Amino acid sequence: MAEKLPPEVQAKLAQFQQVQEQLKMILAQKQSVQAELREVESVLAELEKLPDNIELYKNVGHILIKTSKEDVAKELNERKEILELRMRTLEKQEAYLQKQYDELKRKVTEELMKTYRTAT
Question: Is the distance from CB of 19 to CB of 94 less than 8 angstroms?
């Protein structure tokens, strides 16, 4: 049936599929960022329970380096801010792509219905 579709319908269909794939990629990235954000928030919550003078170590490459609770909290809060910014960006991209997806779906459906009606 694809050979019988007019070129403009084929182009719209290809564009629709491309937007669909982009939307899937954005959703996968969003899931990944959400998981990392939950992990950072969990670590920050646990960190709050610890005394201020506790000795902490962080993994840097293949070695552990002694650090303070304050430094760890600062790094985690910075990471959290970055992740929240990334999440907002992904949400905007998702909304934009979802709008494109819905519009292309409507157009492709209309064109396919016209093509089907004229073919029968």
Answer: no
Q: Is 45 inside any structural domain?
A: no
What is the sign, positive or negative, of the torsion defined by CA atoms of 104, 105, 109, 110?
negative
Residue at 44 is within a domain: no
**pLDDT tens-digit map of 24-60:** 999 999 999 999 999 999 999 999 999 999 999 999 9
44 alpha-carbon distance from chain centroid = 23
* C-alpha–C-alpha distance, residues 70 and 48, integer Å: 10
pTM score above 0.85:
no
The answer to whether the CB of 115 falls within 8 A of the CB of 9 is: yes
**Considering just the CA atoms, what is the radius of gyration of the chain in Å?**
24
Structural domain count, the chain: 1
- Token duo for residue 5: 């579709």
